[in-house]
Write a structure and sequence with these properties.
Elements lengths: L1 E5 L2 H12 L52 E3 L2 E8 L2 E8 L5 E9 L8 E3 L2 E5 L4 E6 L5 E6 L7 E5 L1
Antiparallel strand pairs: 1-10, 2-3, 3-4, 4-5, 6-7, 7-8, 8-9
Length: 161
């Protein structure tokens, strides 16, 4: 069954602003939101050697972020993703070079993270599968604001078949 959240107008405007601003001022290797800086899934990086991939990709580091389906957003050498451990969904910030955890913010109860954080300069946004939406400081994970789509904004889930 497909579940879709109906957003109030204010929330749509806030999320649209955050997500459409992804392509405004990234460094060469930033990937600040789903499908990259231009929303098309294409990297503009041309300074790489395809021969470096012969024999497979070289794994630089691995880390356990829990379970879920989140991809990553990258900006200013920091990698943002989401994962669930011990029935808690978190937004996680890692050093993109080393894989070391910089900070972790527990949004709340959840079994599997399903969204990808979006980065907008000094802010990162995370949405869990129960409707909790957070805006965090990108460098340290401190809360700027948080809300719940259903409880605070009266959003409702509808099923489509």
């Amino acid at each position: 069954m497909n579940i879709k959240v109906v957003f109030p107008a204010l929330m749509i405007l806030m999320l649209t602003q955050a997500l459409t601003s992804c392509g405004t001022k990234e460094a060469e290797y930033d990937w600040p939101c789903w499908r990259g800086p231009n929303g098309d899934g294409i990297s503009l990086d041309t300074d790489w050697d395809p021969e470096a991939l012969s024999g497979g990709a070289k794994i630089l580091w691995k880390t356990n972020i829990g379970i879920g389906y989140s991809n990553v957003a990258i900006e200013d050498g920091l990698l943002y993703t989401m994962g669930s451990e011990s029935r808690t969904t978190s937004v996680i910030c890692l050093n993109a070079q080393t894989g070391k955890e910089v900070w972790r913010y527990a949004i709340g109860p959840g079994l599997e993270s399903q969204s990808i954080p979006a980065v907008d300069g000094a802010r990162v946004y995370g949405l869990d599968n129960r409707g909790a939406l957070v805006c965090l400081q990108a460098k340290n994970g401190k809360v700027i604001w948080k809300t719940h789509l259903k409880d605070d904004l009266n959003a409702r889930k509808t099923s489509t078949g």
